[in-house]
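Work package 3, deliverable 3.1, input record:
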Amino acid sequence: MTITFDPKHPLYIDEADVRDELTRVYDVCNGCRLCLTLCSSFPTLFSYVEQHEDQDAGRLTPAQQDQVADECFQCKLCYDNCPYIPELHESAIDFPRLMLRHAAMRLENGQVSLRKRVATQTLGHADALGILATSVSTISNLMIGAKPGSIARKLIEKTTGVSSVRLLPPYAKQRFSTWFSKRVAPVLTKKQGSVVVFPTCSVEYLQPGIGQDLVKVYERNGIECSLADGTRCCGAPYLHSGDMDGFLKVAKKQVTVLAQAVREGKDIVVPQPTCGYILKKDYVDYVGGPDAELVAAHTYDSSEYLMNLHTEKGTELDTNFTGTIPETISYHNPCHLRAQNIGLLSRDLMKMTGADIALIDQCSGVDGMWGFKAGNEQFSLPVAKKLAEKIEAASSEIVAGDCHLANTAIIEQTGQVPQHPLQVIARAYGIAGETP
Amino acid sequence: MQSINGSQTHQNLLEAFARESQANRRYLWFAQVADIEGHPEAAALFRSIAEGETGHAHGHLEYIAEVGDPLSGEPIGETEANFKASIASETYEYTQMYPGFAQIARHEGFDEIADWFESLARAEKSHALRFGEGLAALSPQ
C-alpha cells in the first residue's frame, strides 16, 4: 500500500493499492476507537471487523470498505482526535483524505452511481446554478421550497440528486456581488486594513445578508472591502465527491485570482467555514506551490480577522456596542471552522457584546453538501437531530452559527432561524439588516 | 543493589510510574486542545514536556521490571516476556475490566459510556490477538 494524498501520484487511483491502504488504516482505527462517537463511519467499520474472530481488517469485502467510506462526510473532526495523523505519528493516518482518494478511485473506475455523478455535476456547477436560480428566484424557491417529499421535490431529486426530504436554503433575489457593486462605499476615516471578501456560493446566491453585514461591520472598523474579479465557487462539491479533475480546474483558477489580490496588499476573508477550510488547507494540499501557500497564509475566517484586529498591536476593534444585544446566544461551532484550528473566535467576538454564549459543539451532518445529497439522509438526519436536541436544551434567546448550510439544518430541525456571528455583531452595532 | 521487592520504594516507584505515565497522556491531550484553539506554540510545549514525562516513566519502569509488570504482575524484561505480559493485561481488560465497567456504567444510567467501554473491550481483544501473532512470529513452533 502507498501512503499518498497526491492526485498526481501514479497509484493515487489504483484500486488494489487504495484497498490495501484502506485495510492498513482501518486496522489502526479498529485498535484505537477514539472516533467511535464522531459519525456512523467508525461504528460501521468496527462492526464489520468484529464479524471476524481474528478482527483482521483485511477480511472486509470491497463493498464493506466502500460503505465505511460512503458514511464519511468530511467533517474533519477525526483530525483533532487522532493520535496517528501524519504530523504526530509514523502511521500517518489521514482518514478524511484517504476517503477522498477512495472516492476519486471509485469515480475513475466507474463505480459511482449515475445519481451520485449527476449530483456532483449539479452541485459542482454551483455558479451556473446560482446565477440561473437567483435570476428566477421566485420560481426556483417555489420548486425547492415545495413540501419535502412532494412531487416537485422528487422531480428535483431525480434530476439533480439533491434530497427530496431535506429542507433546502432558498435563493436570494439579488446576488451579493450585485448589491456590492451598486452600493456607495463609505469614506473610511481610519483605515486599518484591506480585504477581498471571498463571497462563497452560500453568501453570493443564498444569503447575501451575511456578506452585506460583514462589509458594513468591516467598514465600520476601517477595513476596506473589495471583491476580486474571477472568484467563483471554491470547488468543494467536486473535491468532496472525488472529482479531482473538476476540483483542480476550479481551484487553480481561484488560487491565481486570490494570490494576485494578496500581492496587491489585501487579505482574504471567508464567511463560510467549508470554503475557508478549502482555501486554507485543501488548495495547499492539492494545488500546492507558492501561490497556494500565499493564499492560505492570508486567508481568514470573517470572525478570525476581526479578533486579530482586536488582539494585535496597532489595530483596534470598535467595541462600542449600542445596538440590539441578546441576553443569551446558542452558538453552533461548525466542524470545518473547528478544523481550521483557530479557536472559538466567533464565540469570543460575540461575547464582547456582553451576551452569554452557550457553546454547541455538535456536528450538523451537512458538511459541505453531503447532508443534502439523496441517499445520505439516513446518516445525516440523526446527526442533525442530535444538534437540535442540544440547541433546544440550551434554550437561548437566539441561535448563531457561521455555516449557512448547517444553519439550514438547524431551521429544519428546530424552527429557529440562526444568524451568522457577523450579523449578530452588526445588530449589536445598531446596523440594520438589508431587506431581503 | 538489594531487591526492591516488598519495599516502600517499590510502592513509590509504582505510584511515580502511574503519575508520570498519566502526565504524558494528559499533556498530549492538552496539546490537542491547544492545537484546536490555534495555539501551536502551546501545543509544541505540551508535546515536548510529555516526551520528558515518558523518559521519567521509563526510568521508573526499569527499576520496577525487576519485580514484574506493574499492570499484570507477569515477569517483564525481554521481548518474549513482554509479549506475554502484554497479552495478559489486554486479556484482563477485554474479558474482565471493560465488561465490568460497562455493566456498572449501564446500571448507573451512563449508556454512552457503557457503549464506549464495550467498544474498547473489543479493541483490546484485537490488541491481544496482535500481540499473540507477534509472540508466535518471535518464536516459531
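Chain B touches chain A at residues 28, 32, 35-40, 112, 115-116, 119-120, 122-123, 125-127, 129-130 (CB under 8 Å).
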